[in-house]
Amino acid sequence: MSALGGAAGGSEGFSSPIGVGVGVLLILVSLGMAYYFGQMATVIALIGIIVGGLLIGFGVHFVPVGGAPAAMGQSPGIATGVAMLAAGAGLAGLFGGAWAAEFGFAIALAAGAVGGALMMAITCFMVNVVYIFAMGVPSASGKVDKDPITGDTFPEYKSQGTEGHGLPFVSYVGGVVGGMMGGLGGTLIYIELLYVYEGVLPVMLDAGVEEIMPLAVSLAGIFAIGMFLVNAVIAAYNIGGTIEGPHDPKFARWPRAVIGAAVASAVCGIAAIMLVMV
Amino acid sequence: MENILFGIGITAVAGALATIAGAAEDTESDIGSQGDPNSQVQLAPQMGFIHRIYNKAISGEPPAYGLWCAIGAGVAWAFMAVQVNAILAIILGSLVATLVQGAYATTAYLGRTASLANFEQPVYIDLIRSVTTVTMAHAFVAIFTTVAMCYLMNTALGHPFPLPLLALVWGIALGAAGSATGNPFYGKERQYQEQPFGAGVSISASGTIVRYGEAGQRSSLDNGWFTSKMGGPASGICFGLIVFFELWRTVIFEHMAGGWGAVIVGVVLIFIFMALDRYIEVWARKTFGPYAKPEEAEATA
Amino acid sequence: MTVKMEASAGGIPHDTVMAYGLIGSLVGIYLTYLNVLSGTEIFSFFGGLAAIAALVWGANTIKHLCSYGLGTGVPSAGMIALGSGAIAMIFASRYGMLAPIVAVIVAGILGAIVGFVSNKIVNMNIPVMERSLTELSIVGAMSLMGFTAMLGGTFIFDEMVAGTSTFLGFVFADYGMSIIGGSTLAVTFMLAAIALQHPFNACLGPGEQQDRTLMLGAECGFLSMIPIALMSFAFISFASAVIALLVSVAGWCWTYVQFIELSKRDAYAWLDAKPIHEPKGGE
Fold this sequence. Notes:
The structure holds 3 protein chains of 3 kinds. Helix content of chain B is 70%, strand content 1%. Chain B is mainly alpha-helical. In chain B, helix 1 (2-32) runs antiparallel to helix 8 (231-253). Chain B is flat, with a radius of gyration of 22 Å. Chain C is globular and about 75 Å long. By secondary structure, chain C is mainly α. Chain C has helices at residues 14-31, 34-38, 45-66, 75-92, 99-121, 129-152, 157-160, 184-203, 210-231, 238-266, and strands at 164-167, 170-173, 270-271. Mean pLDDT of chain C is 85; it is low at 1-6. Chain C is built from 10 helices and 3 strands, in the order αααααααββαααβ. Chains A and B meet through helix 3, helix 4, helix 5, helix 6 and helix 7 of A and helix 2, helix 3, helix 6, helix 8 and helix 9 of B.
């Protein structure tokens, strides 16, 4: 639905210094609150959540999304909304990560990352199948003349009156990397919150760890989805709805989204942690 | 061993359910013109092309399907909690979700079309009767299969997420996969059927969607008839593959290599799909050839 | 290429809508507290009405925000609102009687920060951004709290995590069967998110009219109440759930008919099985 946004959205230039300053201050305040109300482990959990959030914000920039023009073969990329495609991949990763949570921290994160990347790998492949076999359109980027990975040239493969079409290999790789970061970030937020809730809820409710597991899983899952959506939408605002992948000039805007996602995750994360701390 | 065999069986069933869900989802969204091709249905009257196509602007497909599947699963969960049989509960839940979908679809058509009054686009009230029911039928298939698949994941495979949360996650993934795969086929090949095959729609042609059928006037039902031949099955395969491989690698390889087995297999699968993608990309470049004349290509390259 | 985002001028001023929405949702949520005072669960449906007040307000806010080009679709605004609102709402539910007020404050803070991030760090430079996202976050929190209160008859955390299951005639405490443990919050989350963004998304266009958009907001709210009323059979007494269902269905029918009437008023023509109308002077 990104066609409905109009031409504006996401200007050039770096963030205002005051904005960044206040942002860093907010992160520090959140970390301080985590230390004050909890302990060192809480601070580490919050850092994990912030890292997860900025991974999501960064990962969205890799996902090649062309919005409505892509559905007409007018611009390259996947024809859907960027925040929601990233959410689809990230939540598929979260599914895998949550499933593997019993195997420990590292395996759960890897499972989340691979889940998101696999979802994007299959989706991007099927997107190209439709472009090539159903529409008879080869891949051509509109933003660069040469694929940075394969060296394919694009201008002569671009049909008249369009900005390119299909999903060049660099966009494919971008999609997989974006899915991986989304899955990794979502799982990281989920796992950190799950550990916090597993630790605190039994004391709070005077019940066994086994009994409170459904609560811990549900709370961590809903918070992870909520934070995922906030971060993905901030990143989508940053790129103005569409991007071709890591070779797109808009990709250079990523520092803004990463800072923004870190601030938003820090603030949302401290609220999610304080739920059981105060 | 028996556990693994059981797991493989469930994986296969879940994959099959997902394939049906993907195909039904895409056909449903194409009949209703949801997702990105919707922008052209919205744009056409502004360019002077009044049409009789449904305008189901509910939201992007991923959040919409996240909602439909979550409603189906939530109501099913609640009915199971009051001791209703699981299959009946899932059917009732999907039914409720379908009714909500139908109500949203009609308000979207009425709202969008009424707001186009300046461009003389009338509201064709008979569309609501004929098309809404068909999208609801497809939506029911998509919701029921997704919720049933999530129920299997939760009860048979032991995923920790409760049913409504699983359905939300997979509903969003279903919408993402279905819209990504199916939208271009509907948007380019059906809405702009008169444009030459094998090329993108020129930006100057935006809004000139095909409004007349082989005989008479094109109805949105014709769009479902068309896209169910390619876009729907492709979306079904896409979502089916995602669900199948996600479960398959976990069920079989989860306990191998100290828990890393599923991750390793996943990485291998990613590289296989990457190689396949590169293969068809090169195939297309070779087979279709460049559009522009060579000297032009050299000048711009 | 892109569809113009135009919002109608005039109508009820936004500040008035906001005041009604905020007060209406707070009052509605507190009315569910009558459950505790009277020892019944009959008053749960007030939560749904509170959510509707919030959603109507949110629909108007989205209209203001999205008349600036966001670059991405209207639905994203609903998602970011509920994403931050859900966190604030669950956090606030720990504070017992004060929960609705704490939810407003915490959601306001979260929304203001997200708005600040979008405007100053991501450089959106949209004048109404901070204010709109603050409002939307509060709307998200209040609509979610209202729907949750309708679902389980309570907005207090300790009661939202308590559930029971029956096995062989014995009743066991089972956290997995509670509102939070069963993740029914995920359903209310999506119901509110779509109901929040749908009114403006469905009515946008040059002929958008405020009364029609807001009526659709109410329609979406009542429509969302129906599945919640059905789900509430698992949590509250049978009679209370039936009352909630009746209120939802009656409200939905009324608002739906009203919305159709308003669409009829605004439509260029209302045709039944007629051919394509070709404008004069066109092709």
